[in-house]
Amino acid sequence: LKPLFECSNFRNTMKVFSFLAAAGVFWSHLSSADDADLLAALPEDCDECDSRLSLLQLTVAQKTNSSDATEQVPMIAYPKKYCQHCGEMAFCHRASNPGCGGRASGGVASFNNHARAKGCRSNPTLTIPRSYMRDISALGHFGGGRMILRDMLVSGFNHQRRNGGTGPLWQCIHAPKHVSVRWLHLHTFCKAGKVDNLPNRKDLCAVMSNTMDADRIASYWLR
């Protein structure tokens, strides 16, 4: 038998503990403190707190997946110490998220994108989860993440149809390394168009012809 410290599982566990210590998150806090309070206590600089936020969201996901058979994504409030005059705060209000005084308990929200889509006659659409998710990698931690992503695709498609969009539509989400607004958001626009440097090969994009495509696209993006 190999000594305990030579076992790969033991070494991996020690790496996790080291990461937790470096991030400043302690198991006693995760088990006793309210997750929303922990998220709100993160520093204002998003670049410095991304690792903590991802870890806390993963912790919430693990609690949800182990206790909630319906696999719903929990409502995560936008941290109060994050930026207050930025795109994230604008999305917070659009989402009616509790972190900015809203009362939403889940779901998604679609609205017009103020940026025009080059090559499209209709205004492009933005769709966001009402629960705060920094990017699609955070959504992927939750058992109900695919359902939320599917709902985003359907909501964005239907909103774009109401805006006058016809035919197949582009559905695009920036990859985690390419986000400019740190709140997961879906771009929906005409197939002949281009908005915010989308579509491209570095981000997640798919052509959606009808709402029945949503489940397939969501499953592929979160594979």
Which terms would index this structure?
single chain, alpha+beta, globular
Short description:
The protein is of the alpha+beta class and 223 residues long. It contains eight helices and five strands, in the order H-H-H-H-H-E-E-H-H-E-E-E-H. The chain is 40% helix and 11% strand.
What does it look like?
The chain has helices at 8-23, 27-32, 35-40, 46-67, 87-95, 136-139, 145-162, 214-221; strands spanning 108-112, 125-129, 169-173, 186-190, 204-208. Strands 1-2-4-3-5 form a five-stranded antiparallel beta sheet, sandwiched between helices. Residues 1-6, 13-52 and 59-70 have low confidence and may be disordered. It contains eight helices and five strands. The protein is globular, with a radius of gyration of 19 Å. α7 (145-162) packs across α8. With 223 residues, the chain is α+β, with helices and mostly antiparallel strands.
